[in-house]
Amino acid sequence: MIQRLAIELGLRHGKGFSRSNLVYMRLFYLRYPASAPISQKPSHQLSWSHYVELLKIEDALERGFYEQQAQAERWSVPELKRQKAAALFLRLAASQDKAGILQWAQQGQVVERPADLLREPYVFEFLKIPEPHQVSETQLETLLCDHPQPFLLELGKGFTFVGRQYRVTINGTHHRVDLVFYHRILRCFVLIDLKLGEVQHHDIGQMNLYLGYFASEENVEGDNPPIGIILSRQKDELLVEYATYGMSSQLFVQKYQLYLPDREALRRELEDTLRAAGQRSPNGLE
Questions:
Q1: Rounded Cα distance, 211 and 188, in Å
Q2: Which of 57, 151, 272, 275 could serve as a FRET partner for 212 with CA atoms 20 to 30 Å apart?
Q3: Could you tell me if 189 and 226 are in contact, meaning their C-beta atoms sit under 8 angstroms apart?
Q4: Could you list the residue range(s) of the whole structural domain that residue 83 is in?
Q5: How far is 268 from 192, CA to CA, in rounded Å?
Q6: Is 211 domain-assigned?
Q7: How far apart are CA 279 and CA 277, in angstroms?
Q8: At what angle do helices 19-31 and 2-13 cross, to 10 degrees?
Q9: In a domain, 136, yes or no
Q10: Is residue 11 included in any domain, yes or no?
Q11: Ranges for the YhcG PDDEXK nuclease domain (predicted)?
Q12: Strand partners for 229
């Protein structure tokens, strides 16, 4: 029937009525009924192409999150595709409780405190580094700076670039922060150091030094305390816990990876969280 309709509508009205388009129109009608609450109605800020990508997501929680984020961060269709492929919702939701997951599905990610900036892991698949290939920290830093648009997209909303290899001079000794950003929503500097292997305790001490310097020497009136993020390929949770004991709560150690995450493993984590809380999503995710 849909195939016949596609032919008849095409003859009558011209382009835009392919079989696949009619399938998505039907899905759109079913998932965004006219009688739905305001929160479930389609947004005029998103194009039909955005909604085609959203309608491909079966789970309502996940679809709601991407819809809200696409509006809030004004993602283009390619950016929306990239975030779906990189499993942004699953990466963020894996570390949340049921209430946090449901809030994200309804509102998207709201940045109100330093921890809201974090993702685990960060994904840099856009660098297209061949899997067996090894890069140095300098090469990784250069590649990230050579791909500013996807890098900023991965970091999230609100980041503005300040500098690379930012010099910090203390008593005549020069130190350098790999990457420095300013976050316009949180109104603070965000310092990022890249590590190829497992983060060590002295890496954490070094970042704490940078935070102290920026708080005293770089902050101006109205700035909030700086945030430090160490990105490493591996992370020993116990070492990080002990090494950060008594330190600033603005210092974080997060993992990154160069390839797309295992979506099924992340989805299982989400399912376990929702199942433990007794929450069933509209499309069968428990």
A1: 11
A2: 151
A3: yes
A4: 51-118+262-286
A5: 30
A6: yes
A7: 6
A8: 110
A9: yes
A10: no
A11: 116-270
A12: 192, 252
